[in-house]
Input
Amino acid sequence: MASSIKNMRIQYFTTAKGGRPGSRKIAVLLVDDINRLSYKTMDEIWKARLANIEVYVIGTSKGMDLTKLRMIASKPTSKYLYSVEENSKKQIRAMLASEICRDLSLSELMTGSGEGVGKLSVTASIKLKNKKV
Output
């Protein structure tokens, strides 16, 4: 996970990849296995926070250790941490859309219509599957 977060932090928020000065830097991490948190992972999370990257974490498997996911998610975790076990996928999509796209109505986001849609700049989404953290 550390190398994925590092690549996201270094590569995906550049102007060459569509990043814009002054826009929110948002990463959505889908995590399906989190056996342990390594020093390298926590170091990369810290660096992402220092780079003002908002990290939303979605635990996609039942029985995941939410304490470990809370360590990865931005604060407050009530805003940045979601669990499929506690919410349906549809609920998570709606909550993320509502939180990330505060300026847009949910219908504008889902249909791609409206003037505000061009303001959306979610730069990175990483799926981590069956990897040790």
